## 1
Amino acid sequence: MRLSKTHFTTLREVPGEAEIPSHIWLLRAGFIRKSVSGVYNFMTFGWRTVRKIEQIVREEMDAADAQEIITSPVQPAELWHESGRWAVYGPELWRLKDRHGREFALGPTAEEVFTDIVRGEISSYRQLPRNIYQIQLKYRDEARPRYGLMRSREFIMKDAYSFDRDQDGLDESYLKMRAAYHNVFSRCGLEFRPVRADSGAIGGKDSEEFVAFGDYGESDVVYCGACDFAATTEQAEGVDAAPESEAPLPMEEVHTPGTKTIDAVAAFLKLPKEKTLKALLFVVYEDEIAQNGAYPVKEYIAVFVRGDRELNMVKLRNALGGIGEHLIEFADEAAMGALTGSVGGFTGPVGLKDCRVIADSEVPGLKNLCAGALKEDRHLVNVNYGRDWTADIVTDLKLVGEGGACPVCAAPLKLARGIEVGQIFKLGTKYSEALGATYKDENQQEQPIVMGCYGIGVTRAMAAVVEQHHDENGIIWPMSVAPFHAIVCLVQSAGEAAEALANEIYEGLLAAGVDAVFDDRDERPGVKFKDADIIGIPIRITVGKRAGEGVVEYKRRGAAETAELTAREAVERAANEARREMRREMEGI
Ligand code: ATP
Ligand code: MG
């Protein structure tokens, strides 16, 4: 490709809306252009990189015996009603109606569609296992689209679905996909790690996220330095404090003026925070939208955790039956107080009425706690579970963070930020049972197909690569996903000999299988070098003042030093480096 004929523009200024390196550089390098919030157009270089990532994904999926198909992002609402997700998915599901009033969703994922395809076409155990996938635009009307390709409302996802006869088959399919994911992300040049994850709205049991390390990721991961445990903070099991053995003391009400927080009351009563009970109050909504377009209130709930702990919202939502994020929020104090007797800052479990009470699993083992007295400026001390109050649900609700105990070996955990670039799930029979996707086994018995599903955020992975590979001058693409391997920069002022040599090198690179682009624009060398740096092409060959002697300058993006080589040496070196680095990434080193 010749840049003089290429449609592209790089930006010298940092676009106002961009806050993180990948967003800034992908805009500045002209890879993407915003259409509307959370929706991007991919320009020449950007689309080439997307296609390279897609190709890596495709090769690894095909090697794992998955077959590519493509389905329409327009999905009939009926399928979502069948699975029960039309209501559960909430406002993130982008819904639309046709002229006859029939409802559709723009697919945020495609479990229903793939289950529907398979139920129509698979009837015998002889047709299993199967794994089918697609690389397709997905739509999620995210509450907070941000960070460019990281969290957009339209994005490219590879989604694969496996169909097996039984759990053993699923385990095998899952491991095959897990291995394929390792290859994909290694080949993309990402530093990543699979971590145990919550299965969220997709459902199912076992799940892992592939998390690429990066400061601006939105996944918090805890990992153990002593063993190989790693999980999202949402998923990591909390380790309960050992049950206390002190004798329960008589409960007493005490005056605690103005102590609305755990810190304040602990300081006032000179108690460690571990001896206090933290209350968090929520309102839960029905999942069907009412006539007025709002979600009706279903119930109020009061959650209690040890005073020094934080509540993990995902665990709480799971304890409530896996309700969607949009169906729960902090309760309005006055509204909840009128019904249940709760008092903002002074809520405790003793005497609370008309609401569901949920306690973290370690709370029943704690003795003589301080809790709100349901009266302004009053607390109760020596509150004991069982004697003074009980909960409707007792389960692990703790947020596990830095320094928390590893649930496997009890060593202190470390916290890291990361970008979720993929997730794999063992779904089991959730969708096959809901949609009636069955097969006949050897004994002619009807059995539900056992499913798995496997997603890769192609465009988010592209952003993750930039987060991990950039400097103050722009992107530094790994060879495998660079829009081009090499750029030939012609210094225009160097005359006809230079032009002829640059052409020869460009043709030579193409002939040697190097993905090359020729900067033949009528621009100053400074402009060309800056653009080459921003765009992040791994190899730059500059043809300038020594062209007459057949000598050119060879430079790697990100390296300070340059080498003077003959034209032939430069072509050979570029071909070798491109080949070697593609192979290295293939081997996942
Ligand atoms: P998140 O927790 O970040 O919202 P998710 O767990 O809901 O993501 P999945 O349903 O697991 O996402 O989708 C598979 C993959 O698609 C994710 O691992 C991620 O890489 C990508 N992805 C999901 N949502 C977005 C988005 N809004 N923009 C870009 N990529 C996304
Ligand atoms: Mg996910």
## 2
Amino acid sequence: MDTLDQIKKAIKHAMKSEFYKKHFAGLNIGDIKSMEDFQKLPFTDKEDLRQAYPLGLQAVGDEEIVRIHSSSGTTGTPVIIPYTKKDVHDWAVMFKRCYETAGCTSLDRIHITPGYGLWTAGIGFQAGAELLGAMAIPMGPGNTDKQIKMMIDLKSTVICATSSYALLLAEEIEKRGVRDKIRLKKGVIGSERWGEKMRKRIAGELGVELYDIYGLTEIYGPGIGINCQKQSAMHMWTDYFYCEIIDPKTGQLLPDGEAGELVITTLCKEGAPLIRYRTHDLTRIVPGKCECGLDYPRIATLIGRSDDMVKVRGAIIYPSRVDELLSSIEGISSEYQIMIDHLNGKDILTLFFETPAEGDAAYNLEKDVEHEFKERIGLTPKAKAVRMGELPRSEKKSTRVFDNRY
Ligand code: ZN
């Protein structure tokens, strides 16, 4: 079956759900004759899914649903995703493939710190590890003492965590002086945007190879893609879903290689199929074949969320570009903050960064940052050096950009 036929079959199935019956009202599948026709279909966004609460996305009978998951409802109504037996199995198969791509085998002992429950994290890591035949150690988050004790006593070889939790564990292991008792070889880190500096610290302090795993609850969960041992980009398991990259502002499809928002269509999901789902993750398709030999297409490391992108005096600013820029300058920490203000009819961008440097040295760093920012991003900010530890820290995703213009 070619991609278009697979997509048409998925749409036909999706239209059995209350949500898609309405969303695609009046659509005749026979009229979709080309990929261009498919690309004219309306997107599905998270807000649509919220409105389908609780089970409006369900496209099969109740007797076929074996589990539900829910995306974190940080704002308002959560999204409920029902899964059939096949969906649960397909997800585990994809996750197993992730572990294999990272070089894990049935001899590994996989220490799982993401949470278990409505959220798809822990249970996905678990099911994939079991299918691989490895020893899953279902820790869940928190209780650092116990985490480290189990890691030592059970000789965990793979750590699964968010980047911030991996960093915390690395720091605690260092602090307790038990580094030589730790047997970790690999870290499988849940997808979020994280800078090169943090990656180097975790890899260095834990002595592990790091793999970025991609996924979102709406599309199975984590484990729908991972980077390979060539570390170049994340392979996506596109036998289960179809990927497009669009311009987040206009919704137009972008050619391979251009950065934009990832849009996913599930090809064989039964419980809650999704058609042209906007992930709001910014990335690009990496063209060409990977040296590792895997044929699955690749996406580049996420450069941010389309909701985090800001435009100032015509220049588009992604937080990841600022991370990169600052990490390329010696003597600057990874912490920074951007303030955007509208003063006297003009947008002003102020970039605060932390540095141990003082006096003339700090002034010179400010000038370097301004110069590099202009070179790479296309506008000159006002750079301000502040003392180490002066900018606020957050355990979760830190807010780095404050747009005071509106
Ligand atoms: Zn590869």
